[in-house]
Amino acid sequence: MFKNFFPYEYVKSVFHIDYPKLFRTGYRGILFDIDNTLVHHGKDSNHQIESLLRYLQTLNFKIVLVSNNSKERIERFIKNIEIPYVDEAMKPHRTGYVKALEILNLEKNQVFCVGDQVFTDIVGSNRCGIASILVEYMRVSNQEKIGKKRQLERFVLTLYSFQRRYQDRMGNVKKEVPFEF
Predict the structure, then answer these.
(1) Around 104, how many Cα atoms within 13 Å sit in the side-chain half-sphere?
(2) Which of 95, 96, 103, 137 has the highest count of CB atoms within 10 angstroms of its CB?
(3) The sheet that has 85-86: what strands, in order across it?
(4) How far is CA 30 from CA 17, 22, 53, 132, in A?
């Protein structure tokens, strides 16, 4: 019943994913969410994220940003790095994911999605048959209060923690020591 809510992997951040291992196992494309996955909500890209994205391109990964944000927001984010994107993707609906697969020109079993929200990023990619990696969402340092959706996510992740068969479905791609750029 909850399978579509469970990520294939759950890691601390985009810097805690073993991308070379994923490439060796046959993955060739990555779908990234932007807000609270790569940067804090609404923020521009930074040197660290741009370095990560360039590094992934040197590994020969194809990358597409899939976001519910506007074209203007995404173009501001990618002003220093060339990456295709799907704007106003309507996640968790399949439309944005299908469009991203067309851009990548890859089969869904060659692609994984990285995002911070269970009810958009994870549900959407899982419903499309695309492997999913959930990262801990970025919090503002003094932020204690979380919204109702995040409270529901906590409940789902508690259930996930008891469902071993749904964990590490990509072969445990967690890096204990994060990439540093």
Answers:
(1) 29
(2) 96
(3) 9-11, 131-135, 111-115, 29-32, 62-66, 85-86
(4) 12, 10, 10, 10
